[in-house]
Amino acid sequence: MRVWVGVVGIAFLGLGGAAPANPGKLEIDRDILLRDLSRGEVTERRMACAAGQAPAMRARIKSVGWDTLSAGQWCVTVLTRAGRDGTLRYVALRDGKATPAIAFDAGFVTGYIKREALPADAPAMITLLPIADRCLDQKEADKDLCGAVGHMLGARAASGELIPIG
Q1: Among 19, 42, 106, 124, which residue is least crowded by beta carbons within 10 Å?
Q2: 165 in a domain, yes or no?
Q3: Model-level pTM?
C-alpha cells in the first residue's frame, strides 16, 4: 500500500505520468485515506480542505491523467479519518473570517462529535456531495448551507457511513 501512496503523492505534485483507468482506484484512494496515512499526513490534507485547496489539488491530479475523488469525497474521507483517530478539532481562523470551506469543516466537526441521529428523510451523501464540492471550492455563497451540509455529512460519517463511489 505504501507504494501506491507514493505514486499518488507523485501525482499530487504533478510529477507522474498518466495512469491507466482502474475501476477500483477511487475505492483504493478512499481506503488509503482511511487506513494508510499517518496522522500528520491526515492533518495536512485536512488543513488543505479547510483552506479551500482540495479542488486545486484534484485538478493537478486530473491534469496528469489520474482519476480521483471529488473534493467533497476526498475531504469527507479525510475528516472521517481524523474523527476515527480522535484528532478531529475545530480549525482556528487566522483572520477571523469564515469561508465556505471553513463553515463546511466546522459543520462536519459538530456533526461528527455530536453523533446525532439524522431524520429518516435527511438527504443522502450522494445528494450532499455536490454541495460540499461547491463549499470546498469556495464557490457556495451560503456559508450556513455549507455548515449544514458539513453537519449532516459529519453525522453520517460518525455512524460509519462511507462516501459513495461511482
Answers
A1: 124
A2: no
A3: 0.80
